[in-house]
Amino acid sequence: MGTFAGIFKKPEAKIPTDKVEEFEQRLEQLFWAGGMMEMPYVSMFGVNIETIRRPVMTEEGVDYTYNYFEDDSWENAGYNREKHRVYSEKVGWSKFNAVVRAAYVLEAMYLDGPAAAKVNGKPVDPRWAASWIAGLFGEPVTDKGTGPWDLYELIHKSDSYLPEDAVWDEMQNPIMNYADGEAGYTEWLSAAAVEKGTVEFAKEIGSEDPKEGSIGWWVNGLRNILHKFHFPEGGNGNVGTAETVMELLKKYYDTDMDEKEFEKECQKAGIQLFGAVTASLDMPPIVVKLIAEEYGLDFWKLWDEISELVRESGKHRSGEAWEEPLQPISTMDYLNLREDDMIPYWDGTGRQFPTVVADPPAAEIFLDDSGSARKAERSACHAAELHGIGCKPEAERKGFRILGG
User: Fold this and answer.
1) Residue spans per domain, the chain
2) Other beta carbons within 10 Å of 79
3) 25 vs 180, which has greater pLDDT?
4) What is the pTM of this model?
């Protein structure tokens, strides 16, 4: 039980070598800007005191259990430098959770394949976290990390894939969060068609008797073309095979063949109009789903044969980018903070909330763990004053804070 965060991605996905350094720098800044700290113990005047401080990226990476803004600890979260991946265990439901989710959103942006942050097995809407990332680094965000179709494929192939009868009810709305703009919505419709089957899909989008040129019209037309190829009129025994159709698709997506040339190849193979309708529909997963339905084959096995070719061809509408760049928001907006929460982030220049957290002042927070809070507070505050650091007792905690300035 509990709340767990993670990421949907392909097992072989990685951060490109030339992007690792930038990613690690930004991730470290993101964790710090979000209030993530480590908790070493120190002894002061005979009193055992648990402190928190800003961690620095080491050869192993960085590890956190405490969030300053939430003022609470959770299980370990951080970054493994050897594997180049963010990791986490239980993250709670507040600010610790929000920062870890944003770390996974950032990782998804840098991976060389489709990826998406998830919480408890479901993809999260990345827009709020991505807007915070835009605010931290002064760059509007256009990259989603994945489009709706690729996300659906990742979910299907992940270990956390839900039972078949539950997946679409649970996942259609989270996937829809990635479906802005025409291209994104088209990809979401492809996922719906594959999940429900093209006949049921046509019913749900009101396309049982579709208008010419609509998605339903193209889908119904392509279904008829495939059926006539599979079972030609006249019963002459020249049955068209699924292998023939798939080879035509591979040839189209693996070369610079245009739509007219594709249709000519299809006519040579005896499947007239297949090329023209496939190119006009521009929804490759639905085309493969129709083939699977016509021939009684497994969709995912067929799709695996051409998925990379489709992705690399550029011959289809891709929903991998936001239609409009996401605009920046501040840390205060993202984590719902007050101005005085940001005291450790004052940089001495009059800019209380820097856009990019380059080298913020160190801050230590001491939590008395000895049962002698008053004595520890006086001693620690005196030590703080000797170093020119202000001390602020915190009534709501059992200890107190020393804030760097």
Assistant:
1) 5-146+324-360, 150-319
2) 22
3) 25
4) 0.80
Q: 306-347: per-residue pLDDT in tens?
A: 999 998 888 877 777 888 888 899 999 999 998 888 888 876
* Alpha carbon distances (Å) from 233 to 12, 221, 228, 240, 277: 47, 17, 7, 12, 21
Q: What are phi and psi of 51, to 5 degrees?
A: -110, 165
Alpha carbon distances (Å) from 403 to 34, 67, 360: 16, 15, 12
Please compute the mean of the pLDDT values over residues 35-64 and round it to a whole number: 88
Cβ distance 130 to 105 under 8 Å?
Answer: yes
Q: What is the pLDDT of residue 169?
A: 73
pLDDT at 306: 95
User: What sign does the dihedral 162-164-170-172 (CA atoms) show?
Assistant: positive
Q: At what angle do helices 274-281 and 242-253 cross, to 10 degrees?
A: 60
pLDDT of residue 214: 80
Confidence label for 237 from pLDDT (cuts 50, 70 and 90): low
The 72-80 sheet, strands edge to edge: 36-37, 61-67, 72-80, 85-88
> How many residues can be counted in the chain?
405
Given a contact cutoff of 8 angstroms between Cβ atoms, the answer to whether 267 and 248 are in contact is no
Using alpha carbons, list the distances in angstroms from residue 37 to 57, 226, 284: 12, 60, 46
Secondary structure (3-state) at 81: coil
